[in-house]
Amino acid sequence: MYQSKLKSAILAFSVSIMAISMIVLPDESFKASIQGLNMWWEVVFPSLFPFFVISELLIGFGVVRFVGVLLEPLMRPLFRVPGVGGFTWAMGLASGNPSGAKLTARLRQEKQIDRVEAERLVAFTSSSSPLFIFGAVAVGFFHNPSLGLLFAAAHYAGNIIVGLVMRFYGTGEDTRGPKKKHTFLLKEALLVLHATRIKNSKPIGKLLGDAVMSAIQTLLMIGGFIILFSVFNKLLLYMHVTSVFGMFVSQLLHLAHFSEKLSIPLISGLFEVTLGIQMISEVQESSLLQQAIAASFILGFGGFSIQAQVASILAQTDIRFRPFFLARLLHGFLSAVIIRLVWNPVYLRFFAEKSAWQEAFGMPGGGRSLYARVTDWLEIYGPLFTLSCLVLYIFLYYRACRADQA
C-alpha cells in the first residue's frame, strides 16, 4: 500500500514538473515538438505505413499461417516459438521498430501464439531498420557508409543471440502440448491458408479498410510518443537533469577508459535513439571506436521512446513488458561487445583506409549514396504522403461511424 502511494506521488510530481517546465521554456518545448513531428511525418509514417497495412492483409488472407507452417521446423528448435514468428522476425527486420511488437500483439490477439511464446518473440523481433542504420546512422551522422555494415552486423547478430537466450525463458510456463509431427509441410500449409481465408468472412474492401485504419491508428500513437519524448529529452537537457546523471555515467566511462564527453549523448540516447546517436557522432574528444560502441549500444537498447511505444502496443494484450525491457538491455550490451570484437580484424583491416563497399552504397565519382537519396526523397514527399493517408483515415472513420449509426 505504501509503495503504491509513493508511486502515485512520484508520478504526479514528475508530470507536474514537466508541465511547469513547458510553461517556463515554451520556445524550447515548441522547437523540440517540431523536431519530433518532422521525424514522424517525414520518415516514420511513410516508412512503416505500407508494412503495417500489408502485414494486416497477410494475416487476414492466411499467408502468415501458411508461412508459419513452413517455418515451424526452423523457428521451434531455435527460438521455441511457432513458425509464424519467422514472418514477424522478417517484417521486423525490414521495417524496424515497433513493427515486431505490433505483429506479435496481433498474433497473440489471433491466438496463434501463447503468452510465453509472444514474450519470447517480441524480445528478438525488435530492431532498427536497415534504412535507419545505413541511411541515418552510418551516412547521415558518421558520414561513413562502411560503418553501416558493422552496425548492421552487430545489431542483427545481437538480436539473434537474444532470441537464442530467450528460448530458455518461461520454460515452466509453456501451455502448449507436445508438437505434432509434420508430414508434408506444403500441403498442410496450403490447407491452413485456405481454412484461414474461409474463416475470415470479411470482404476484401472491408479487410483493406480495416488494415488502413489499424495502421494509421498505431502510427498516430507512435507519433505522439516521438513528439512527447523529443520534448521530454530537450527539457531534461535545459533543466540540467541530464548533466546530473551525466556525472555518474562519466565515472563509469572513465573506468572503462572511454571519453567522459560521451556521458550526455549516452543519456540522451537512452531516451531517444536518433538524438543520442547524432550527439555521439559529434563528440570530437572520443575515438571512432568509442563512438561506434556507444552508438551500437543505443541502437540495441532502443531508447525509452521506442520502449514506450512497444509498452503501449503490448498493453492491448496480456504480454508482459518486463522480459522485453531486459532483452533490450541484453541486446544493447551484446551489440556493443560485437563491435569491439570485430573492430580490429574487420574494420581496421578492410575499411579503415578506404571502404570496399563505397561503390555499393554510393554513386561512382563520389555521388550521393542510395540511402542518402532515399532519405532526401522522404524529406520531400514524406509529409505529403502522411497528410494524404490522414485524409484517407478521416474518410474511412467517417464511413465506419455512419455504418455503425445505420
TrEMBL record:
InterPro entries: Gate_dom, Spore_IM_YlbJ. The chain crosses the membrane at residues 9-25, 45-71, 121-142, 148-170, 207-229, 292-313, 325-343, 380-398. The keyword Chaperone does not apply. Keywords: Membrane, Transmembrane, Transmembrane helix. The keyword Transcription does not apply. Residues 43-140, 219-315 form the Nucleoside transporter/FeoB GTPase Gate domain. NCBIfam families: spore_ylbJ. This is Sporulation integral membrane protein YlbJ.
